[in-house]
Amino acid sequence: MSTNNTITLMREMAIFAKVVETGSFSETARQLAATPSAISRSVARLEKALGTRLLQRTTRKLRLSESGKQVYEHCLDIMNSAQAVMSVSGNFSGEPLGIVRVSVPKAVGRFVVHPHIPAFLTRYPKVDVSLRLDDRYVDLIDDEVDLAIRITDQPPLGLMGRRLLKIWHMLCATPEYLAEHGIPQHPHDLKTHSCIYLGEEPGDSRWKFSQGSKTVTVNIQGRYAANHTGVRLDAALKHIGISSLPYFTARHALQQGRLVQVLSDWNFKANYTGELWVLYPPTRYLSPKLSVFIEFLAERLRQENIQDKKVAKEPHHYHYELPEAEE
């Protein structure tokens, strides 16, 4: 294929990538202010030029062919490069600029990320931040998010990212509560205490512990369950009982002596644990606004000393797998 033909087809390549991302000719047409038939013709021109079927169409779905998957990956590289070109103005001006859209779980956003946003905005006056606190799974492309901060021990395939810190849980209570009700010495002692737990599923009232090779499961009880760590923190501070909390939520109260860790010689095993990562789509060129945000957040968390010592310095790369597209 000649260079002229390649340049001519770059628009078709961009439209094809957008169709795959949206999963729909009509939605692509809406976003690009075109008609569905014009979008369909553009994809057809690309298929004709390449001599292969890229999309398998039904009345309800669009599905990539095998060759379509390969072509999409290359088209995505082109789009990422184009976005990098558009973002280099930050390099020329010497200042990062634009808006950073970040998705983050609610508790992590409130207690870990949000406290550092004012300082970031002060340091980078031409960068705005849209912080989206949501516990649901967010797709970076479909939800138009630049960065996703997630708790996982296995980052998703097809994303790049940086490890920020370790999330771990503990049990806490106020000195006043423990003075009145006693200090548990073994996980089984929790059976006689008021416990503040997650309460979303039946298994949330079965607390699991480990100590070396020993494992213990205790069926706890209590008058208060709440599916938000901030609420469980407040309940513990009001002497309602012994609460399960991630360390990042409880640490200030622990440092101030308002809370005391319970059963510190046991490892409390909770679902909301793992490594905290900041993730983004694979690209060779990370825009200045994203680079400074990631570096700023990582440095501030390192200074807070709420992460362990082994912090990844370089991005990690994972194989890209394309989800099925739907009309």
Automatic annotation (TrEMBL):
The keyword Transcription regulation applies. The keyword Transcription applies. Belongs to the LysR transcriptional regulatory family. GO terms for biological process: DNA-templated transcription. Coiled coil: none annotated. Keywords: DNA-binding, Transcription, Transcription regulation. It comes from the Bacteria. The lineage of its organism: Bacteria, Pseudomonadati, Pseudomonadota, Gammaproteobacteria, Enterobacterales. It comes from Xenorhabdus stockiae. SUPFAM superfamilies: Periplasmic binding protein-like II, Winged helix' DNA-binding domain. This is LysR family transcriptional regulator. Residues 8-65 form the HTH lysR-type domain. GO terms for molecular function: DNA-binding transcription factor activity; sequence-specific DNA binding.
